[in-house]
Design a protein that fits this description.
This protein is mainly alpha-helical. It is 79% helix and 1% strand. It contains 17 helices and 2 strands. A two-stranded antiparallel ribbon has the order 1-2.
Length: 463
């Protein structure tokens, strides 16, 4: 099977990837700025942001992943020139947004009790719980933004998302300055203030993106489709997106559990882990953006029934994503101290971060490749394989290795990260085997609106 991209596929991938990567980096940069600004207050506030983010994304990432069912639905419909399926897909995404936001918000309420149960540091627990409470008002716009972002990406109209992210970052810096440090007459709220600022910024992101993209999305939103509320079609969309939600939850959950175990090693260790993880996650936004572009281009090719183009788009994404992570691996290995000092001047936190960053450099390549492979499979409509392989790679293999090295071999924080590296490598290998096998044969379009589908029917493919 020929996965080698031609110049045309590489050019298409770069054109679509650049704005998507800009969006991913911009979204991540909001968290980076939060961490950097809070880190100037105290190790406790920094650790609270780390703990709060672990809890927030462990819950929120499921809905984020479920809404990524829009990748194959909208991209394949665009490739097939099926505007009505695009409209129904987007509107169903907004219907699901409401229910996802309610569920996530309810799960946020017992965060303080959960932190105590997980034996987190006493000084961090109340601040972390306050951070989660301040995040609740932002859940509805968080998911609404995802619906608009994924839909616009699938249509290849990413410029409105880029402008939204730029504006939201500027607003976030201002809100942090006001709420974290207590300027303009507001009380100094520290880590809790950053959460309230993020909630305000998320409402701005959803509203502003809808406004600046209205000319693009108006044909799909101006008239409400009755079929958008069809229970069985919504169920098929949920069934398609649920494995993506579980896959992302398993992946983030693995990092979350590592964060919890870091908390067992102390506040300073957890703060150092947060610095190193923030840098690794920032680099990861690039292959994650490339994965989004790969999902779109593969999905459009499948919609056109052009498997040669689908294979070459997969190859282009792999080449670009893997190549970028090789470069970042070299940076992490060569200058860990320089990078860590951007976040903190605390010598204890610095020591932990400098010890962890070279390990991050080693697993960067596998992390980027597995993200691109998952995007390719999502574009082709295979949402189950990444879920299964994440369960095997992280939870059956990686997490046990982390625990054994950290506590059995007394390697501490470094042992926890080496286990992550092992899990990422296993996931990457399994996913690429699946990509080759799936694209070696023809892949049919995923159909949600199938009149013949029964209540128990799964999203099916039609050649």
């Amino acid at each position: 099977m020929d996965l080698m991209p031609r110049r045309a596929q590489l050019a298409s991938m770069v054109r679509l990837s650049l704005p998507i990567v800009t969006v991913q980096v911009g979204m991540m940069f909001m968290g980076v700025v939060d961490t950097m600004m809070v880190g100037r207050l105290s190790a406790t506030d920094l650790a609270a942001v780390a703990l709060g983010n672990v809890y927030f994304y462990t819950i929120a990432v499921f809905g984020n992943g479920m809404l990524m069912a829009l990748d194959p639905i909208v991209a394949q419909a665009v490739g097939a020139d099926d505007a009505e399926s695009v409209a129904r897909g987007i509107q169903r995404g907004f219907v699901l947004t409401f229910f996802l936001a309610v569920i996530a918000s309810l799960l946020f309420l017992p965060s303080g009790t959960v932190f105590v149960w997980l034996r987190q540091p006493e000084d961090v627990v109340p601040v972390g719980a306050g951070y989660i409470f301040g995040s609740i008002p932002g859940m509805l716009p968080f998911y609404a933004f995802v619906v608009l972002r994924q839909s616009l990406q699938a249509m290849g109209r990413v410029a409105p998302v880029v402008w939204t992210i730029v504006a939201a970052n500027l607003l976030n810096v201002f809100l942090n300055w006001v709420l974290i440090f207590g300027n303009l007459g507001f009380p100094q709220m520290g880590a809790v203030g950053s959460a309230w600022g993020s909630s305000v910024a998320r409402w701005f992101m959803a509203a502003y993106l809808l406004i600046v993209s209205w000319r693009v999305v108006r044909p799909y939103l101006a008239r409400v489709r009755r079929e958008a509320f069809d229970v069985f079609a919504l169920g098929r969309m949920v069934r398609l997106g649920t494995p993506v939600g579980f896959q992302q939850q398993l992946e983030f959950g693995a990092f979350s559990l590592i964060g919890v175990m870091m908390g067992w090693l102390g506040t300073v260790t957890m703060a150092g882990h947060q610095v190193a993880l923030n840098l690794a996650a920032l680099a990861f936004m690039v292959p994650l953006g490339i994965a989004g572009a790969a999902a779109v281009l593969v999905g459009r090719a499948v919609g056109r029934e052009d498997m040669v183009e689908a294979r070459r788009a997969a190859g282009a994404g792999t080449l670009l994503g893997g190549g970028f992570m090789v470069v970042t691996a070299c940076v992490f290995l060569g200058a860990p101290g320089l990078l860590a000092r951007v976040y903190t001047a605390d010598t204890g936190v610095l020591a932990v971060a400098v010890a962890l960053l070279p390990i991050a450099g080693i697993f960067q390549v596998a992390d980027g490749l597995q993200a691109v492979a998952a995007g390719v499979l999502r574009g082709a409509g295979d949402t189950r394989s990444p879920f299964i392989f994440n369960a095997l790679g992280f939870w059956v293999f990686g997490i046990p290795v982390s625990a054994a090295l950290a506590f059995g071999a007394d390697m501490g924080a470094r042992g926890l990260w080496w286990g992550l590296a092992a899990g990422l490598g296993a996931v990457a290998v399994l996913l690429f085997i699946r990509v080759r096998r799936l694209l070696a044969r023809g892949v049919g379009r995923v159909v949600i609106d199938d009149p013949a589908a029964s209540r128990a029917a799964r999203p099916r493919r039609v050649a």
